[in-house]
Design goal:
The structure is a single chain. The protein is mainly beta and about 130 residues long. The protein has a single domain, classed as Sandwich (Jelly Rolls). It contains no helices and 11 strands. Strands 1-2-3-10-5-8 form a 6-stranded antiparallel β-sheet, with no helix packed on it. Strand 2 and strand 3 form a beta hairpin.
Length: about 130
């Protein structure tokens, strides 16, 4: 570890393989299930989570303070609403880019789980999550 001007400590990145652990999934207040695939202080630049939204569910309006988020849709079909853009249908392979401090939500409009990767820069922390009142 090295002392740095921005943080108390800067960790040196080391090669690692993190096996998928399905039992790490938990329900998040946003209205979806989250499995943190990679979210460590040793890699503050990026976090990766698998999100799962049940059929017919719309996540609550929210924004991430000082964090840019990207969705990579893996399975299902949804309608994403971000910022002032019109609602947009997303399916497998689509990428959604959500700038920091931008309100967002997603609705699962299919009969199967909507599954996507959420990549956050810098890494997601619960302090960055801000619920939006309609």
């Amino acid at each position: 570890m090295l002392k740095g001007p921005k943080h108390d400590y800067i960790f040196i990145m080391k090669p690692i393989i993190k096996p998928f652990q399905a039992d790490n999934e938990y329900y998040f207040i946003e209205g979806c299930y989250i499995n943190e695939l990679s979210n460590d202080i040793e890699d503050e630049a990026l976090s990766i989570a698998q999100a799962r939204v049940s059929p017919g569910v719309t996540t609550q309006w929210h924004r991430l303070k000082s964090t840019t988020e990207r969705y990579v849709i893996i399975q299902g079909q949804g309608i994403v609403e971000i910022g002032d853009l019109s609602p947009h249908t997303v399916t497998s392979g689509d990428v959604v880019i959500i700038p920091e401090n931008t309100r967002q939500r997603i609705t699962n409009v299919s009969n199967e789980d909507l599954v996507f990767l959420a990549l956050c820069t810098p890494r997601f922390t619960a302090d960055n999550y801000q619920e939006e009142l309609t």
